[in-house]
Amino acid sequence: MPDHLALAAQDLRLDVNLLDYLVLALYFVTVLGIGFAARRAVRTSLDFFLSGRSLPAWITGLAFLSANLGATEILGMAANGAQYGVATVHYYWIGAVPAMVFLGIVMMPFYYRSKVHSVPDFLRRRFNGQTQLLNAITFALAQVLIAGINLYALALVMGALLGWPLLLSIVVSAAIVLVYVVLGGLSSAIYNEVMQFFVILAGLIPVTVLGLVKVGGFSGLADKVRQSALGDPGLHAWAGTGSADGNPLGAHWIGIVLGLGFVLSFGYWTTNFAEVQRGLSARNTTAARLTPIVAAYPKLMIPAVTVIPGLVALVLFSDLGKPGGPQYNYAIPLLMGDLLPNGVLGVAITGLLASFMAGVAANISGLNTVFTYDIWRSHVKKDMPDEYYLRLGRLATVGGVVLGIGAALIASGFSNIMNYFQYMHSRNSRTQVICRQAPSPEPI
């Protein structure tokens, strides 16, 4: 574990009191309570992996969005807002919402009506077992790595809250998620994700509002951004995209529209089982179709509580992202410590923890389903009793969390976890068109 990261967590320890701890404790009790309650409904592997295909659209839709509100969305997009400016909204309005709507209108009916339990299973029916196995293995690997990002971000907050070393924070955070996913399976994850969606907003909205007040509103923020390292280009989404060198993101508009808006976003949103799984747990085809569409509406507004705080952090903390200063990843925790009174601070910390726990739970619930159904049952041991696969799913959950802890230590070497996210997904030319390759890790 890099020593400078452990020291940074100590330096950013938040000034919490008993009221903040009580808010946090109430959240953890509620999360575990949902896990124990959901356990009573788990009788078959279908209940554990797909909630018995019984959930309404508003539940699956909010869970769909919350599952995506992990570390890359909160810490990562706030870091991108500070590092690249307003152009970060492309990841939402170009790189997410159109593909989510397409998934709902076109793809979800195919997935749901075919009665598949996963995206790799759909590929088996469409092509062959080898295609299923390849997709299942690559998906499982990706979920472990993304779970590591979420665990690392969760550990950053735990370290800032309690002053714990990074490794201890990662292990404790992973254990909490492990308990409620093992207990209640996908139902536990989904119902927690719905609650976590509202907790996340309750934590981020005060940070955004008080941050804007401190910098003089939107006009004051704009003036200060123009005086920062980003300058005026940091306030524009499309200006300067006629060339890759004319904007902070380093992106050409063709790359944004075709590379991010079509190639990457459609490939991600229509085949990423961590999100599609929420739609497959819906009660009928209509609910499955509405799942990503319901999620798309609040997704449009999420930049208000991620990108704006990133810009506020940039102008309030002049050493952010610079040698000797805090990483861009710390934009949100820095604002929380600087702006929020006790009590509200506890809600904000809980909101951050909720976002990361939702992300980890989504990764692990997708991983255990794909490993059990698409790798083990389809290619190793077929026609075993249902209890066998239910037990194997719980063991896969444990294994996925353990591997996620290792991936979290890898993520700790990157100063911007959104850069690591892009770097992890692809180092080929398509990714390089829309974003810069992740820089070498920089010491704080």
Structural account:
There is one protein chain. With 444 residues, the protein is mostly helical. It is 73% helix and 0% strand. The protein contains 20 helices and no strands. Helix 7 runs antiparallel to helix 14 and helix 9 packs across helix 18. The longest helix is centred in the middle third of the chain and has 50 residues.
Give a short summary of the structure.
This protein is mostly helical. The protein has helices spanning 3-11, 18-39, 45-50, 57-68, 75-84, 90-93, 97-113, 119-126, 129-162, 166-215, 217-226, 253-271, 273-280, 285-301, 307-316, 331-339, 344-379, 386-411, 417-425, 429-434.
Layout of strands and helices, then pairs:
Blueprint: H1 3-11, H2 18-39, H3 45-50, H4 57-68, H5 75-84, H6 90-93, H7 97-113, H8 119-126, H9 129-162, H10 166-215, H11 217-226, H12 253-271, H13 273-280, H14 285-301, H15 307-316, H16 331-339, H17 344-379, H18 386-411, H19 417-425, H20 429-434
Helix pairs in contact: 1-9, 2-10, 2-17, 4-10, 4-13, 4-14, 5-15, 7-12, 7-14, 8-9, 9-10, 9-17, 9-18, 9-19, 10-11, 10-15, 10-16, 10-17, 10-18, 13-14, 13-17, 15-16, 17-18
